[in-house]
Amino acid sequence: MGEAAIIDGKAFAENLRARVAEVAAGFLEKANRKAGLAVVLVGEDPASQVYVRNKGKQTVACGMESFEHKLPVDTSEADLLAVVEQLNNDPAVDGILVQLPLPGHMDEAKVIATINPDKDVDGFHVVNVGRLATGLPGFVPCTPLGCVMLLKDKLGSLSGLDAVVIGRSNIVGKPMAQLLLAESCTVTVAHSRTKDLPEAVRRADIVIAAVGRPEMVKGEWLKPGATVIDVGINRVPGAEEGKTRLVGDVDFASASEVAGAITPVPGGVGPMTIAVLLRNTIVAAHRNMGLEIDESVL
Ligand code: NAD
After folding, report:
1. What DSSP designation does 16 have?
2. Domain coverage including residue 157
């Protein structure tokens, strides 16, 4: 097997954002206002601040309104819930995202449960989790939806393919498995207690790695020609003293010798997450105002 094809998530995300911008322009004409995304950040976690800044910038670049609510780290849970309620009731806000993780004194599940499910563009509310599991229209978590978009772009129909999802988090692994099942894949969900992970991976036409362990999945585990989607984002020491670099959960060097196609890190799944968030927001805006939207162009 030669070198795998590189799945260019950065280019795909750029195209998706351009399509969202077109639909957002149409929404402005029909609704007489821009679609709006509210992002709530509690505390000053540096990584979260970067995410929130990027989300805001890209929201505006797509012709939508960005509302940022930055609350101090010692905000009470009751005050945060009041902000969420206010956003639930604000007709200018179509999508609400509460940046996770929240400070330890807050109950994340309770906060997510307070978001109106029809504005829950992250797809974390149990109502949306249930909708996904039962095949009803709702909102699907951005990172796994982005992975499925990349897979379908590369492979066309996924029907009948064997897929292994490594990781079972509520944010990535579990919704990923549901989405692949909905695409008629035969899905195996592997996790930290899986007995023989290389063996499970070897059977798969599609491998999704969402573990958070640098370069864990080796090329020799893969079925030749498999499509590999690497969700992991891990910061490791770089070649130069004091420098760091990003790597995925897949050992790219060995995996790209065996795989048919593979996402790089960075530039693979990473850029998809915000693009899908913007997609979910413009969908929410249309649905909540009872306006038609052709979701197939997104
Ligand atoms: P998590 O820590 O919540 O879940 C990790 C999962 O991996 C767990 O279900 C665990 O069972 C499994 N696991 C741990 N060790 C294992 C092992 N040795 N073998 C098999 N499975 C094992 O993580 P998460 O939030 O799902 O994120 C996973 C990775 O994806 C992280 O690197 C994170 O940074 C990245 N991530 C990227 C994006 C993005 O690209 N935008 C979004 C979310 C998460």
Report:
1. H
2. 141-271
Looking at residue 245, which CATH number applies to its domain? 3.40.50.720
Q: CB atoms < 10 A from the CB of 265, how many?
A: 24
Q: Determine if ligand 1 sits within 6 Å of the CB of residue 197.
A: yes
- Token digits for 256? 């790209």
User: Whose CA is closest to 108, among 130, 81, 86, 145?
Assistant: 81
Question: Is 174 within a domain?
Answer: yes
Neighbours of 2 (CB within 10 A): 8
The best mutation among 54, 99, 172 to test binding of ligand 1, ranked by most ligand atoms within 8 Å of the C-beta, falls on 172
Give SS3 for 245.
strand
Q: Which two tokens stand for residue 174?
A: 């579990």
Residue 174 Cα to ligand 1 midpoint, Å, equals: 11
- Name the band, by pLDDT with cuts 50, 70 and 90, for residue 188: very high
Does residue 149 form part of some domain? yes
Residues serving a catalytic function are 55, 99, 122
Atom of ligand 1 nearest to the CA of 272: 41
* Residue 1 pLDDT greater than 70, yes or no: no
Specify the pairing of strand 186-190 against strand 206-209.
unpaired
Structure tokens of 247?
């790597």
Residues 235-294 have pLDDT tens digits of: 999 999 999 999 999 999 999 999 999 999 999 999 999 999 999 999 999 999 999 999
Indicate whether 248 belongs to any domain. yes
Residue 161 lies in a domain: yes
CB 268 within 8 A of CB 255: no
Tally of domains within the chain:
1
pTM: 0.97
